[in-house]
Amino acid sequence: MDQESGFTTDLLQALRQSLSDTFSVLGPGDVDFTALLAKIASQLIVSAILITIFLAGYLLIRWLMQVTLRRFRLTETVLHPLLIGLRYAFFLLTALAIMAQLGVKTELLGAVAKAALIALMFYLAWAVVTRILITLLQRYNLDPSIEQLLRNVVSVLIVAFGIVTVLAQFGFDILSVVAGLGIVGLAVGFAAQSTLSNFIAGITILIERPFRIGDWVRIHDQEGKVMKIALRTTWLRTRDNIFTMIPNDSVASSDIINFSAEGPTRVRIPVGIAYKESIKAAREVILPILEAHPDVLKAPDMMPGVSASELADSSVELRVLYWITPDKMDIQPRISAQLLEQIKEALDAAGIEIPFPHLQLFIDDAKGLKPVMEPLYERTPPAPRNG
Prior knowledge:
This protein is an alpha+beta fold. The protein folds into 3 domains: 34-170, no CATH class; 202-258, Roll (SH3 type barrels), CATH 2.30.30.60; 265-349, Alpha-Beta Plaits (2-Layer Sandwich), CATH 3.30.70.100. Helices cover 60% and strands 13% of the residues.
């Protein structure tokens, strides 16, 4: 038993000596672990008491705010910013008290307090400016993408100025910081010219709005529905359910055809009939088919129609016209195919000929071909007779 006690004492003494040697490297002189542990424990206890006092004050003030809110029947929008400010003050006072307990210098405590108040002022400015900006954008009914872009730009500017102002409270040279940021910005700009070009083009598209999300467009021979307008690319979904991302720089410099900007779209289907057939009879056969289709509009100024468009070499070309809504643009080829099939069957049923290219050769008194044709007739055996 005595041997075990002696071994434990030697082990603890060796561990203490090792820790003493380690701390002696960091600071001069021997370390009194008893006094050090007592000081750390006292600081932790005092810090816990301070946190408890501030937390109790925070909860009490919050309860009083909620009681006042219910008594005067105020909305939650009034209480929310007050609670944020109260919570911020609680964390600030707690941090300052703990830092003072740990022996932080008064100058640093003052700088921290000033920086915290400045940060609170910039936060309030951000909240107010953002609220005013959202109200103005909603009043003018601008695109949600523009709203998000402006909010991000305002947030970045306010945060940048706030960080610079806070750093100034701790003695940083603001001019050097700004110059460094400028040099970094130039380097990034040269390294990402394509990205910046697409970014600027994206802003131009969002401001000019040649198309919106949900429109059916054709860009660079790519036709599809606009699914997303990002700051760098524009996303299209084709009829084959294939997503295409086109760089905004390319979109801004190309011809854009928007099929949905002005509402319903008119579609043409060419149909040919023989010269001997009546255009009126063909129209009476085709119109009921157009009017019966559920996806074809029948508005007063957008009724389907059939008219002659050209007298071609071997047929009378008819132009079959019908209107569809913008949300039907992705199935427009299917609608045209259905109508064309029904028109073909209806014209066949009505006995109206649909001509096709063919060639007839007439030979009158072609005596020059007699030396060539007679040997062929002589070589051809006569057809056998029945019976």
